[in-house]
Specification:
Elements (H helix, E strand, L loop, with lengths): L4 H10 L8 E2 H7 L6 H9 L12 E2 L12 H10 L4 E2 L2 E2 L2 H4 L2
Parallel strand pairs: 1-2
Antiparallel strand pairs: 3-4
Helix pairs in contact: 1-3, 2-3
Amino acid sequence: MALTDFEKKVLKLLKKVPRGKVITYSKLAKMAGSPRAARAVGNALHKNPDAPVVPCHRVVKSDGALGGYAGGWRRKTKLLREEGVVVKNGKIVDFKKIAV
């Protein structure tokens, strides 16, 4: 599956999000130069050919809710918890403290 330049940029930026941290779809869109393209970020993550090397599980909604994940929300929760991120009822606990 071919990636657009925007999608490549999103995945490259995402690789910089460290373990134990999360970023929002909208912040990632802004960093990629398209602040209104949060949905396009989600589409780019869905095409991610290198998960979990490119850690799309670290991208969450702006309210701290998990959002989507190609591997399912249980897998996303498991990956985040393995990195020390506390998830409760489908949301990141202490979201403001661990958001990039």
